[in-house]
Design goal:
Structural class: alpha/beta
CATH architecture: Roll
Helix content: 25-40%
Order of helices and strands: HEEHEEHHHEEHEEHH
Number of helices: 8
CATH topology: CBS-domain
Radius of gyration: 21 Å
Largest sheet: 4 strands, mixed
CATH class: Alpha Beta
Length: about 190
């Protein structure tokens, strides 16, 4: 695809192709959605690391990440308490992970029915669908974002992943036309 005047809307994933969950959902539903969501009958799972949370009207509330889910499920282990670094097995002690496995699994199971409200990251930046790819790249790289929600006409319509932006810009950079222009010192990305 030509990136000349290409915008985020041209490469974004439509909302139906990205995992979403209602804000009334549970941590278990979020975990199941991340583990199994794959649009368009593709191979399952597709490997999403986050999902969007929407309200009853379909408006963006925030996102839930894998890290957020794990922090709720295993909060006693992941809370910022003063834990000594593990120095490895010795003759006197077995592996700490083996000792804690049963306790941690029970703790995780106890948090599955928790509301996703505990893990929603709110106040996300939203990318307009009309944003050109160079601008999108700079927003995402400088903001340390790998996925951003996309809006058009003040309505959530999809997401753009940094890998898509990189791919589209990379296609332009390595195209035969771009290589010949760069050798002449006239490369114009957009």
């Amino acid at each position: 695809m030509n990136t000349q005047n290409q915008a985020v809307r041209d490469i974004m994933i439509p909302l139906a192709g990205f995992p979403c969950l209602k804000e009334s959902g549970t941590v278990q539903e979020a975990l199941q959605k991340l583990r199994s969501f794959c649009p368009l009958n593709g191979p399952s799972p597709c490997g999403f690391s986050e999902l969007l949370v929407v309200d009853e009207k379909g408006e963006l509330v925030g996102r839930i990440t894998q890290q957020g889910i794990l922090r709720v499920l295993f909060s006693s282990l992941l809370d910022s308490i003063n834990i000594k670094p593990f120095e490895g097995k010795t003759m006197d002690y077995s592996d700490l992970a083996i000792l804690l496995d049963g306790v941690l699994m029970k703790e995780g199971a106890n948090h599955l029915k928790s509301s996703v409200a505990r893990v929603i990251e709110r106040g996300l930046r939203v990318m307009p669908a009309s944003t050109d790819l160079i601008h999108a790249m700079s927003i995402m790289v400088l903001g340390n974002e790998t996925v951003m929600p996309v809006e058009e006409n003040q309505k959530l319509v999809g997401v753009v992943k940094l890998v898509q932006v990189l791919s589209a810009l990379g296609d332009k950079l390595i195209s035969p036309e771009a290589r010949s222009l760069s050798s002449e010192g006239q490369l114009n990305l957009l």
